[in-house]
Design goal:
The protein is an all-alpha fold and about 350 residues long. It contains 6 helices and 2 strands. It has a two-stranded antiparallel sheet. Helix 2 packs across helix 4 and helix 3 packs antiparallel against helix 4.
Length: about 350
C-alpha cells in the first residue's frame, strides 16, 4: 500500500457536496476582503462569492446594505457615493474672487491717479461730503479750544478756592485785619463757586460737541468710506465691461461679456444703494447737528456772559435750563473737577 503524502491542514479547503466552499471559510475570506477595501468607496458591505467548479460566473462582486445586521446579497454593479464638497476648495475660490476684486480696484485707483481712467462723480453728493469733512475739522478745533479753556478755568478755580481758604485763616489770626481778610476770603470763595458752575456748563458743552464730532459725524463718514469703496468697484467693473464691448464678439468672448455684464450689474446696485444711504445720513446729520449746536451755543453764551457779569443767579438759572447738575464739592469721591 502506497504511503499517503503528508497534508498541511492549513491548505485544506473543505468543499460541500455541490462543490461550494463552506460558509466559515467564505465568511473569513469576506471579512479579510472588507478590511482591505478603501473606506472612501462608500459601500456599506461588500462580499465575494465563489460558485461551483462548473459555474461560468467566477469572482462576482456583490454589494448591498445589511438591514438588521444581516447581509442581503444583490447582484449588480458597484456604485460609488457622491463626491463630498471640499471646504478647502470653497475657501480657495472665495480667496480667488477676493484677490481678483482687489486687483481690479487697485488697477482702477492707479488709473484714476494717473489720469487715465474715468470715475463716476455725483457733484452734489461730493460737495456735501467735502463740506462735512471741512466742518468736522473746524468742530474738532472748537472742541480742542474748549477743553483748553476748561483746564485753565479749573486751575483758576482751584487757586481761588485755596486763596479764599488762606484769607479765611488769616482773618481768624489777624484781629487788626479781620474784616479785610474776611471779605477777600468771601469774594474768592464766591468766584470759585461761580467758576465751578461755569465749568459745569463748559464741560456739558464739550461732552455734547464731542458726541456730535466723534460719534455722529464719524458714523456718517464711515458710511461715506463704504460708498467710496463701492464707487471704485463699480467703476472698475464698468471699465472692464466697456473694454470687452469694444473688442471682437465671438464664441470665446461672448461668455466673458455676459459674465462681466452680470458682475457690473451687481456692483451697480451696490453703488446705488450706498449712494442713497449716504444721502439719507447726510440729511439726518444736518438736522441733528443744527439742533444740537443751537442748544449748546446758547448754553455756552449765556453761561460765559453771566459769569463775567457776576450774575450768579442767571448763571445758576442757565444750568437749570439745560438740566445740568453739579457734584457737591468736598465729598469723599473725587469731584467732577478732579476727573477732568
Amino acid at each position: 500500500m502506497a504511503q499517503e503524502s503528508p497534508k498541511n491542514s492549513a491548505a485544506e479547503i473543505p468543499v460541500t457536496s455541490n462543490g461550494q466552499l463552506e460558509d466559515s471559510h467564505e465568511h473569513s475570506f469576506n471579512r479579510d476582503l472588507k478590511c482591505s477595501l478603501p473606506v472612501g468607496l462608500g459601500l456599506s458591505e461588500t462580499k465575494i462569492t465563489s460558485h461551483g467548479f462548473d459555474s461560468t460566473k467566477e469572482g462576482v462582486v456583490e454589494a448591498g446594505p445589511f438591514p438588521g445586521g444581516r447581509a442581503q446579497q444583490k447582484s449588480g454593479p458597484v456604485l460609488l457615493a457622491d463626491e463630498v464638497k471640499n471646504p478647502a476648495m470653497e475657501k480657495l475660490e472665495l480667496v480667488r474672487k477676493w484677490s481678483l476684486n482687489t486687483y481690479k480696484c487697485t488697477r482702477q485707483i492707479i488709473s484714476e491717479k494717473l489720469g487715465r481712467g474715468s470715475r463716476t462723480v455725483d457733484l452734489e453728493l461730493e460737495a456735501q461730503i467735502d463740506i462735512l469733512r471741512d466742518n468736522k475739522k473746524k468742530y474738532e478745533n472748537i472742541l480742542k479750544l474748549a477743553q483748553t479753556l476748561s483746564t485753565q478755568l479749573f486751575q483758576m478755580v482751584h487757586t481761588q478756592r485755596q486763596l479764599g481758604d488762606a484769607f479765611a485763616d488769616l482773618s481768624l489770626k489777624s484781629l487788626e485785619l479781620h474784616e479785610e481778610f474776611g471779605y477777600n476770603a468771601d469774594t474768592q470763595k464766591l468766584l470759585a463757586k461761580n467758576g465751578e458752575t461755569l465749568l459745569g456748563a463748559i464741560n456739558f458743552f464739550i461732552a455734547s460737541v464731542n458726541t456730535l464730532v466723534n460719534k455722529t459725524i464719524e458714523d456718517t463718514l464711515l458710511t461715506v468710506k463704504q460708498y467710496e469703496s463701492a464707487r471704485i468697484e463699480y467703476d472698475a467693473y464698468r471699465t472692464d465691461l466697456e473694454e470687452l464691448n469694444l473688442g471682437p464678439r465671438d464664441a470665446n468672448t461672448l461668455p466673458k461679456i455676459e459674465q462681466s455684464q452680470q458682475l457690473f450689474q451687481v456692483h451697480k446696485e451696490k453703488y446705488d444703494k450706498m449712494r442713497n444711504d449716504v444721502s439719507i445720513k447726510l440729511k439726518f446729520l444736518e438736522e441733528n447737528k443744527v439742533k444740537v449746536l443751537h442748544n449748546q451755543l446758547v448754553l455756552f453764551h449765556n453761561a460765559i456772559a453771566a459769569y463775567f457779569a457776576g450774575n450768579q443767579k442767571q448763571l445758576e438759572q442757565t444750568l437749570k435750563q439745560f438740566h445740568i447738575k453739579l457734584k457737591t464739592p468736598g465729598a469723599d469721591a473725587p469731584s467732577w473737577l478732579e476727573e477732568q
